Amino acid sequence: MSASPPSAEPAAQPFDRLRYAGVFLLLFLFGAETFLVSPLLPTIADSIRVSEAAAASSVTAYVLVYAVAAPFLGLLSDRFGRRRTLVAGTLLFVLSNAAAALSTGLTPLVLSRAVAGLAAAAAGPAIWAHIAETAPDAVRGRALGLGMALFSAGQVVGVPLGGFLAGLAGWRSAFWALAVGTAAAVPLLLKQVPAGGSAAPADGRGSAVRAVLAGWADPALRRALLVNTVFHAANLGAYTFLGAVLVQRFDLSVEALGLVGVLVGAGSVVGSLLGGRLGDRARAAGRDGVPLLPLWGLLLAAGIGLAVGGPGIVLALLGVTVWFLASGGFVTDQQTLAGTVAPELRATSSAWLTSTMYAGTGVGAWAVGAFADVAVGTAVVGIGLALVAAVGARVLRAR
Questions:
Q1: Are residues 302 and 279 in the same domain?
Q2: Taking a C-beta distance cutoff of 8 angstroms, is the pair 148, 332 a contact?
Q3: Are residues 247 and 175 in the same domain?
Q4: How many whole angstroms separate alpha carbon 208 and alpha carbon 222?
Q5: Which position has the higher pLDDT, 167 or 11?
Q6: Predicted local confidence at residue 13, as pLDDT
Q7: DSSP readout, 94-163?
Q8: Does residue 211 have a pLDDT over 80?
């Protein structure tokens, strides 16, 4: 890979943020969707006369369908173009949220959430691929970082927004708000995403399954996906128990834990923006395409260590912030890598990043939960796997 001269500054190529207004709006809404349902579960369960555990299956349906379907739908984007897949997924997202708002029982609610997961799995990888292939090389990381920051901001806003709307006009209003907001993005997408995109014709890889697995045949992508799995086993697997750990250590109230969520979001936003900017500068200086991945692994280990064992609540909360700063920076660098290593597999690779993230989260949460003391489990699994990810990222960089 030819290196740019050190004098080439990333800012030499301006980044037109308004050009991506449609996809950025979608990323914010997809982020809000992630945690929007959580505060609504008691109200939803009471409204449709089921237990909260049963209502929570609507969350599982969304995540499970996304994780399984994303690589296959990413292939559709790589084969038939970004615009078709993106617009189809967006329209399906509108309809699925409207269906959720109209649901009167558990079955239609779960089905509507599964369809929403399918819609996001179609649109999400196409968004990341579109940004990666249309943003100028010198600011590609910055563009992806801003998209990730908006996604993270949506996650932070999702919980209070869901609670506010439910209190104002009932739980159905939250889904109507998502449907309306997503519909507003459609005209922007039609204007800003070029027809045809970068569709790649079928290239003789064989069946659809073989084509979906093609990313794993690329050595650099395969190593990146393995590192991604381990990193998120530490990151989100440990995060599953963060609330329990902080309550155990400091006896925090539910309201205080909500403020911790703000730190999680703030760290993710800052990390995403910082990761994109620093990555662009490193690549402009002629260094490799994944210059900071080992650093994010080390920062993750440090952040988890402070959150779980730091003396006093101030250092623990500082650890939470560092933890998710590392998370945001890592995800941005990984999306940049997926968008540049194998251009013909951009959306498929991006989809695999999400699927391996969910897989890692499940493995990490299971491993932490196997410990009798969740604080000990969070420390051992979180710090240990974060260091393994840092070493793996160093190997990835070396090769």
A1: yes
A2: yes
A3: no
A4: 18
A5: 167
A6: 57
A7: HHHHHHHHH--SHHHHHHHHHHHHHHHHHHHHHHHHHHHHHS-GGGHHHHHHHHHHHHHHHHHHHHHHHH
A8: no
